[in-house]
Amino acid sequence: MGTIVVGVDGSEGAEIALGFALEEAALRGSKLRLVSAWEIPPSVLASVVASKEFYEEFRENALRVAEAAAAIVEAHEPPVEHEEVVDEGHAGKVLLENAVDAELLVVGRRGQGTIREMLLGSISRHVVAHAKCPLVIVPVPPHK
C-alpha cells in the first residue's frame, strides 16, 4: 500500500487539497498521511520572549488542524487508512521530509497573487523545486 501525503493548515486551499488527496487515496487504495507543520515566525520571536506556553499554543493549533482533517477522513466512504503528523518547522521542509516514501504529495494553493507570494514566500513553489515524488498542487476555484 502506497502513501499519499497532504499538507493541512486549516485554510480553504488545504481543505480542497485534502478532498482531492482523500479521493485519490480511496481510488488507489493508499494510506493518507495528514501533515500539519508549525513554526513561530522569526519576526515574532525577535519581538517577544517566548515562554513554553507560547510555543505550546502554536503546537496545539497544529494538532487541532490535524485532528479536524482526520475527522473529515474518518467520515469518508469508503474508509481510508490515515495517520496524522504534526511537526515543527517550515511547512515546505516538513512536507518534503514526510513525503520521502510517498507515492504522491498534495498541497493546496491559496492563489494570493504574484506580489503577495513574493513577499510571503510560497510553500507550493518550495515543494515544486524540491519534491522527489509526484506532486499535485490543487488550486482554490475562483469564487463567483
Notes on the protein architecture:
The longest helix is centred in the middle third of the chain and has 23 residues. The protein has a five-stranded parallel sheet with strand order 3-2-1-4-5, with helices on both faces. About 50% of the residues lie in helices and about 20% in strands. The chain is built from six helices and five strands. Helix 1 links the parallel strand 1 and strand 2. The chain has one domain: HUPs (Rossmann fold, 3-Layer(aba) Sandwich). The protein has about 140 residues and is α/β, with parallel strands linked by helices. About 5% of the residues have low confidence.
The dominant shape is globular
Q: Count up the helices.
A: 6
**Rg of Cα set:** 15 Å
Average of pLDDT? 87
- Distance linking N and C termini: 39 Å
Structural class: alpha/beta
| CATH architecture assignment name | 3-Layer(aba) Sandwich
Examine the coordinates and then state which fold CATH places here, giving the name of the CATH topology: Rossmann fold
- Fourth-tier CATH superfamily name: HUPs
Q: Strand share of the residues? A: 15-25%
According to DSSP, the number of beta strands is 5
Helix content: 40-55%
Could you state the order of secondary-structure elements as H and E? EHEHHEHEHHE
What's the number of domains?
A: 1
Biggest sheet features: 5 strands, parallel
Give the low-confidence spans: 114-121
Major sheet: arrangement of strands: 3-2-1-4-5
CATH class: Alpha Beta
